[in-house]
Amino acid sequence: MEIEASIAELQATLRKHREKLATEEAAKTTLVLPFLRALGYNIFDPDEVVPEFTCDVGTKKGEKVDYGICVGGEIKILVECKPANGDLSIKHASQLYRYFAATDARLALLTNGVVYRFFTDAEKTNMMDDRPFFTFDLDNYKASDLRTLATFQRADFDLARIVSHAGALKLQSEVLAELRKEFGEPSDDLVKIIAGRLHDGIITKGVRDRFRSAITQAYGSLIRDGVHQRLEKAISGGSDEPDHQMAEVDQGAVETTDVEIEGFNIIRAICAEKVDPSRVVMRDAKSYCAILLDDNNRRTIARMHFNSPTSRYLGLFSGKDEAREGVMGPVDIFKHKRAILKRVAELEEE
C-alpha cells in the first residue's frame, strides 16, 4: 500500500526531528498535515482541508478547530491539534466537543502529531464519545493499524461503514486494554478463579503468589504462541479471516505483506544498536524486499525473499556478495543478528 510508505517516511521524520516539535505549529506543519496528505487529502485545497475551521452556531465566539476535512463538499472530520509533547487528555478538547455537536461531522481527530485519536458518537448520537474508538501511534504501530487507518483515506472514505464499525472497534480496544492489564498484573479475583480451579486445598498467600506469577508467565507464552501461529499462517499463504477493509490489489503490482513489515521492524530494531533506526528504510520490489541504510540502494543491509509460498530466504551481504539463508519467518531473523550488525558496521566504514 502507498500509505505504508508514506507513514513509514513520516515516522522517520518524527524520530529525526522530535526535539524540534515542541510547539503546536511545528507539530501541524511537520506531522499532522503530512499525515492528512498520506490519507489522500489535498492539504493545499481549502475546499478539502479547511484550516481554522469555524462554526457560528453552538460554539463560543471566535472559537475554532484546527482543521475541517471535507468529503463531497461536506465537513466529515474535525481535527484538533496539540504540540508533539502535548497532553491528549479529552479535558483539553472542549472546543472539539462543542464543534462535534454543532456540525454534521461524525468523526473527530485529536492529535499531537505522534498519537492520533479518532472519536465518533457511538454512545449517544451527536455527542462525541469520551473515549476514542481507534488510536494510531506513529511511534509504535502494527500492520493491522495501517489497515484500519486506510479506511479513512479519501479515495475509499465511507462514513457509514466507519461509524458502524466504530462501536465494535472501541469495545474491542477497551477489552484488550483490560485483558493486558489483568494478565500483566493479575487481580486477586482472577487469581482466586484460576487457583480455585487448579489447586486442591486451602488457597494461602503463598499459593496466590505462585498462581499470580504463573498467570503472568502463561500469558506471555500465550502471546508468543499466537504470534508464531500467525506467522506460520502468513508464510503458508493463509490468514485468520478475510480482510474486507483492504482494497483489491493488482496481482502484478508490488504488495508489501504483513510478514515483510514484521521482518523490517525486526531488522530495524537490530540495527538500532549501531545506527539511528530512522536511517533504516524498507524498499519493496516484486522479487524481494530490500532493507537499506539511508534509503540508498547501494547500501543494502539485507533482502527478504519472502514471496514464495513454499520457501523463505534472508539475503545477507558482505561487500557486493549476497548469501541466502533459509528462514521459516521473520522471527528467525534474530538468529542472524551478528551478520546484520556486521553489515551495518561495514556500510558505516565506507
Draw up the topology in text.
Layout (H helix, E strand, L loop, with lengths): L1 H16 L6 H15 L10 E6 L9 E8 L2 E8 L12 H9 L4 E5 L3 E5 L14 E4 L5 H8 L8 H26 L3 H11 L6 H31 L22 H14 L8 E5 L4 E5 L6 E6 L7 E6 L2 E6 L10 H13 L1
Parallel strand pairs: 3-4
Antiparallel strand pairs: 1-2, 2-3, 4-5, 5-6, 7-8, 8-9, 9-10, 10-11
Helix pairs in contact: 1-2, 6-7
Give structural notes.
It comes from Qipengyuania vulgaris. InterPro entries: HSDR_N, UCP035009_HsdR_All3000-type. Pfam families: HSDR_N_2. One of its GO terms (biological process) is DNA restriction-modification system. Residues 44-123 form the Type I restriction enzyme R protein N-terminal domain. This protein has 350 residues and is of the alpha+beta class. Strand 2 and strand 3 (74-81) form a beta hairpin. It has helices at 2-17, 24-38, 94-102, 143-150, 159-184, 188-198, 205-235, 258-271, 337-349; strands at residues 49-54, 64-71, 74-81, 107-111, 115-119, 134-137, 280-284, 289-293, 300-305, 313-318, 321-326. The longest helix has 31 residues, at 205-235. The strands form two sheets. The protein has a six-stranded mixed β-sheet with strand order 1-2-3-4-5-6. The protein has a five-stranded antiparallel β-sheet with strand order 7-8-9-10-11. The protein has three domains: 2-172, tt1808, chain A; 185-235; 258-349. Mean pLDDT is 82; it is low at 238-253.
